[in-house]
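Record pair follows.
FIRST:
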Amino acid sequence: VEKTDPNDAFICADFARVRTGKNSKLVPFKANQNIALQRLTRERMHLSQQLTREKNYTLNNVYLKISGLAIATGKDKPFSDNFSAIAEAILTEFNDPFDLADLSLNDLVGYLKAASKNKGVEDYEKMADLIKKAINNSYKMDKISYDCLTSAITASINVIECLEKQIKYLDKAIEKEMKGLYSTEYTILQSLTGIGPVTAAGMLAEIGDISYFDDDGALAKYAGLYWKRNDSGDFNSEDKLKPKSCNTYLKYYINLATQNSVHFGFSFTSEFYWRKYRETKTHKQRRALVLTSRKLLRLIFVLLRDKKMYVPVSVQET
């Protein structure tokens, strides 16, 4: 298609050269680098979701094989991670878990030490007792079922290990890409409690240059953190329609950062979250999360716009 408007050519040339004049405030557009970073962060999110699904699916088979282990809670739980080295050894090396329970305490302790390589366990005897208790409280199945379940669990664990390996590989690639693209912004976001390297990289990959957005409202609309009106006459519903057009990846990372910040007690978000949680009787958690995410997004916009690290109020006062 031919272009005959001379103004278009002038604008394009001025944009490319970033000269003084009408477009003196423009900066080079790093489209290719930003798209490359998006491919990395979105692939990592994809693999993380796959990893979660695979672990949940595996836990179904773990329940069938050793139901007492799957439902154990609190002090009765042998280990906090059902996918630790010891847990994986128990689930894959013994077809019949009751053979493991029949071992003497000394033999079982020796097996646990070998499986963990004498690392990460404070009290092997206590763990051995809890494992025996969990197995003895489980439903017993026939040999054929145990053989099939062991094969299925082993296959799933191999997939989990592969996914974890690929996620670590992507983490290194993302860190390398961030150093040459948004190094300052990358550091700024990590000054906020609850935002780590992965979350910061994911946000910046979707936001790009913060100057693209006029204010935090525009950024919130891009992330889907706004609410359409749902009222009629004097009635104003608390249930707002969720916007269908938004950047779902950015929304995911903002919500993830909010959940982490509340979990780790970040005063800027946690106090506000629990106040909103107590204000309503319906949709407590979802409402509090969305409102707190909107509040956190406003802070993120200001920090990126002003290129300033976050400083807690207590530090500012001192």
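SECOND:
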Amino acid sequence: MIRLDRVTARVGGFALREMSFDIDQGTYGLVIGPAGSGKTTLLETIAGIVPVVSGTVSLRGADVTQQAPQLRRIGIVGRHAY
């Protein structure tokens, strides 16, 4: 399970504000939006690459908000334009 509860995160001048949702174990979530809307910032916040300003991130039922990225057992595969 992935749970965000009122998560705010900032990268430069951009901020995700008070994001909340649940994705139950064994199900899928889909993140869509235009360029610059915060999709990558959201995924990097869940993975712990971008720090949480406020709110909580829970993975598999445990609060990982302050946990180091390498301990979260989450991976991101990015697509790069060549």
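COMMENT: The chain has one helix and four strands.
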